[in-house]
Amino acid sequence: MSEAIKFLDPRPSVLSRRKDIIADLIDLLPPEALVHEARELVPFETDAFVAYRRVPLAVALPQTTAEVAAVMKYSHRYGIPVVPRGAGTSLSGGAIPQEDAVVLGLSRMTRILDIDYANRTATVQAGVTNLSISDAVSADGYFYAPDPSSQLACTIGGNIGMNSGGAHCLKYGVTTNNLLGVKMVLVDGTVIELGGKYLDAAGYDLLGLVCGSEGQLGIVTEATVRLIAKPKGARPVLFGFETSEEAGACVADVIAAGIIPVAIEFMDKPAIEICEAFAKAGYPLDVGALLIVEVEGSEAEMDATLASIVEIARRHGVKTVRECQSATEAALIWKGRKSAFGATGRISDYICMDGTVPLSQLSYVLKKTSEIIDRFGLRVANVFHAGDGNMHPLILFNANDPEDAARAEAAGNEILKLCVDAGGCLTGEHGVGIEKRDLMRHQYSEADLAQQMAVRAAFDPQWILNPSKVFPLEGRNAA
Amino acid sequence: MIDMMPATEEAAADIIRGHAAAGRPIAIYGGNTRSGLGSQLAGMDRLRSAGLSGVVAYNPGEMVMSVRAGTPLAEVEAALEENGQMMAFEPMDHRPAMGTSGVPTIGGIFAANVSGPRRFVAGAARDSLLGVRFINGKGELIAAGGRVMKNVTGLDLVKLMAGSQGTLGFLTEVTFKVLPRPKASATIVVSGLNDPQAAAAMATAMSLPVEVSGAAHLPQTVKARFLGGALPEGEATVLRLEGLEASVAVRADKLAADMERFGAVSKIRNEQSHVLWREIRDVMPYADGTQRPLWRVSVAPTAGHQLVAALRLEAGVDAYYDWQGGLVWMRMEADAEADALRRYIKALGGGHATLIRASDRVRSAVAAFEPLDPAVALLSRHVKEKLDPKGIFNPGKMTGAAS
Description:
- Chain B: This is Glycolate oxidase subunit GlcE.
- Chain B: Keywords: FAD, Flavoprotein, Oxidoreductase.
- Chain B: GO terms for molecular function: FAD binding; glycolate dehydrogenase activity.
- The complex is a heterodimer.
- Chain A has helices at residues 12-15, 18-28, 38-41, 65-78, 130-138, 156-162, 169-172, 175-178, 206-210, 244-256, 269-279, 299-315, 327-338, 340-347, 362-375, 402-421, 440-443, 446-459; strands at residues 34-35, 58-60, 82-85, 102-105, 112-116, 121-125, 142-143, 179-185, 191-195, 219-226, 228-229, 234-241, 263-268, 289-296, 320-323, 349-352, 379-385, 393-397.
- By secondary structure, chain A is of the alpha+beta class.
- Chain A has a 7-stranded antiparallel beta sheet, with helices on both faces.
- In chain A, helix 10 (244-256) packs antiparallel against helix 15 and helix 11 (269-279) crosses helix 14.
- By secondary structure, chain B is α+β, with helices and mostly antiparallel strands.
- Chain B has 3 domains: 3-180, Uridine Diphospho-n-acetylenolpyruvylglucosamine Reductase, domain 3; 189-266, no CATH class; 284-365, Alpha-Beta Plaits (2-Layer Sandwich).
- The two termini of chain B are 22 Å apart.
- Chains A and B meet through strand 9, helix 9, helix 10, helix 12 and helix 18 of A and strand 8, helix 7, strand 10, helix 8 and helix 10 of B.
């Protein structure tokens, strides 16, 4: 377990009242909605950023907005930190609790409340998984567009907290572009609604502010999201290149030519090997880099778009172009890509970076990344959303070797700084969490950060909502 | 009252610091083409963005543009046009309907979150906005967001600034996403549908895999005001398709075939289609030189025509619909009827109404922006205090003179 990243010191006033707090929460909630026995708390001590863990004071698993409001009202009154949690799939430690916190888990709020095809919306409770929205409407010809790799498990509430993206965001946007409204519980237990089935906000765009706020502004309990009619057809095509640089340059040229495929995914050689070994997706193993480009529309449209892309790829010396011949094959291609993190986890411990860079910087950043990794004597697999410049270097290391783990963290930090220096940002879709918190000053000035913290304080003046996250622990009083 | 037109961010910050120290309010202006929207800011010092002009960075291959806030919209659009690109959200021009003059600025577009017909599938101005630089009410330069398409680093102050009508800060620079301009455009016209039938037809069109990028219904009262009266006989329900020529042709045939069960179908192509959607965007039927109250109402698409039908029992209302029926442009014959309008919006599932135009008498009595639920209003006030602690930016513009 690594200790480089600090948490806030637990509030003694809360720890000393642990028994009373649990007794009070038992009174507030139905019996099955509270977890407080030591061994039952273990599953909640971390998320997908497993290098760090903290056992929470208790875990509340409410089933209604009213129960969430009751927990918030109580916690607010006594200054007890609250850490919201969806499915616990955060890669940045967004859902890791702390010793003095009540975890507010939304995983039992799993009802789909309304599907309205005429208005193209679905209204769901926050614990509904991302994929189950698309599953519920697929037979009727619709889907919900943001598709994070963890979509089988991750919840819509968590997606809103992190403003999650996915492979198909190039065309359809990320969560914030597909979110129409929320019901949320404010820090003092007040329930508000922002947005609805209509477009744009009356007043300030608080919905836009809440989306991606990492559970620091309130607890979203319900969401209304956009449904989109499924395209007639969709076809992923594999493009194999000798080098990562060629693949990167091809991506930039495709976009520059005014072609916006639904997705352009990038894998380097290590990533191809790892994913192919796991998914048997038919990825070519004799190439240095692979692009998965998905086009959609009618057969004629897909053919025309693909022809243009193939022409550009040839200019960059593409070695292999493979169109899939069946829906099964297409599914396999995506399975391979979406299981990249899991497949990597089978062969090694890893940390996943998430910086985004301008497209013109892709090749440069890939080259610099491999130099950094070499310098630290580590290995890396690159698998990412190339169309929007969102990079995911997976840094492989041995978690049982503290020195190796420290090296991986240090290399990761250098890579993220590289992304910022190249005109990009620390995180494209995974969120800051604890992982990138202490790098925030590399991207933002003191005034920028102080302004964000001040706005945060408008929602949560006591800083009890997910307080160890996003903002560096030092200098918070300035806000 | 003085006019201030700083040429640098530092100069703007100095001005704002001075006013904050003196507790002196400032009216923030771009091109002032929405003069008259919201509460009056009469007699205040005016801070204009016009001195902050010019493209900062534009690499068409990255589909991202950074521009100083006071840059004329026309200059931005010309640069994009030259590279075959556009702003996907299709910003409208308020001048014809509001009877105003002035030069629309890019900062004003984002400060007011101005979008057009494509908004319901391609997002609003706020969805394209990637980064901003602004001076807050303490006179500090704040940067938020960036110039990459995916960015979840910290709180999204970018969204907050979009649509805040100059009440939270003075925008100095905006960075936004652009898209390739579609090579071809076609519009399918379904004729003779009443409002509910049109709502059903538009919902059906949106359920098809043909990527409709505009869906409007033009009732009999407004129809003749479009394309110089050249639309076919009967009410016109219009559905736009854009993209590559061959693709548009295939999708247009498919959509036309599907729409035939609703009514007579005809097609409008490229240049005429562009003109039609520009007229829909800019509310040309109500660019009538009058001050009759004009509302912009956003509701769920299926609620739009129900709202108009309900109001018609009480008042003289003329209306047409964009965004699949969810954007209702509504001209009242006499009074603004704000209370009835807002009551029905609530009853029909919620939304918001903005009074875009009215006589001074009406404007002084009616809240131009939708009044907020008390808890949301309180939160909004707290947010405003964090950006503009002295309350010097456009005081009362969105909330009315009362607050």
